[in-house]
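Thread: NDP complex, take 2
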Amino acid sequence: MTTAIQPAVPSLTLNNDITLPQIGFGTWQIKDDDDAADAVRSALDIGYRLIDTAMIYGNEAGVGAAVRYHEVPRDEIFVTTKLWNDSHDYDAALKAFDASLNRLGLEYLDMYLIHWPVPSQDKFRQAWRALERLYEEKRVRAIGVCNFKPHHLESLLQTANIVPAINQIELHPHLQQHATREFCAKYGIQVESYSPLMRASRLLAADLQNIADKHGKTPAQITLRWHIQNGLLPIPKSANDGRQRENLNIFDFALDDDDMAAINVMDQERIIVGDPDSPDFG
Ligand code: NDP
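Output below.
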C-alpha cells in the first residue's frame, strides 16, 4: 500500500448531521469492472475516502469489490451511487436500489442520489418517496439529488418530507452555478461539484497557469482548491495514480483573495456535460 496524502482531508457535516470528506473520487467512464477496482483501490491507498459511482457507469461491481477488499474499514469509506432515469416509479426505484447494492456487494449505502430530474417524465417526486423510505429503513445514511436546478428543488420540496442532503451538479470555474448554490445554501443542501476539473478541457489556460506558478502547484490543484475554499465538495476522476495523488494534494496551501477573485471572473456559464432541462437527459 502506498502512503496516504498528508495533511488530512477536512470534513463537512450534512443536514442530517453525518460527516463526510470534502473531496471525493469520481469513476465515470472507468467502464471495465477490473479497471474500476484498480482505480478505486489506488484512490483508497492514496487517501480518498469518498467514492462516487452510478448504476449507469456500469462499474458498481468493480467499485464495490475494491471497497470490500481494501484494508480501510467499510465504515471509513463513503460510497455514493445513483438512481437512473428509467427507474423513477416508486417500486422501480426500490428495486434499482437493491440491484445497485447487490452489484456493489455492500450491506448499506452512504449516499443514494437521483441522477437527473428528467422533467419530461415528471416522476422525481415518486422516486424521492422511495429514497425517503430507504433512508427511514436505514439502508442508506443520506439521500440527495443530482442536476437539480432551483425550480426542480422547489418542486421536490413541495412534497418532500426530507430535504436532500446533497445536490451534485456540474460546477467548475467556467460554470459557477451561483443561483443553485444560493438556493442550496438557503435550504442546507451541500453542493457537490462534478466535472470539477472541467473534464481537463481548460487546464492549460494561461490564467490558471499563472496562479499555479505563483503557488508551485498545478492548474488542477488550483482549480480543486478553489472548490474547497468555496465550501464545495469536488469529486475529480482520474484513472492515473499520479494524477489521483496530485488532485488530493491540495491541503498544504491556500489561495488568497486575489487568486479567488481571478478565478471567480472565469465564469462563462459553460455547460460541458448537459442541461438537466434538455430532452437529452430524459
Ligand atoms: P473531471 O473534471 O473530474 O475530469 C476528469 C478528466 O480530467 C479525465 O480525463 C482525467 O484524465 C483528467 N484529469 C484528472 N486529473 C487531472 C490532472 N490533475 N491533470 C490533468 N488532467 C486530469 O470530470 P468528470 O466528468 O469525470 O467528473 C468527475 C466525477 O463526477 C465523475 O467521474 C462522476 O463520478 C461524477 N459525475 C457526475 C455526473 C452526474 O450527472 N451526477 C455527471 C458527470 C460526472 P485521467 O483519468 O487520464 O487522469
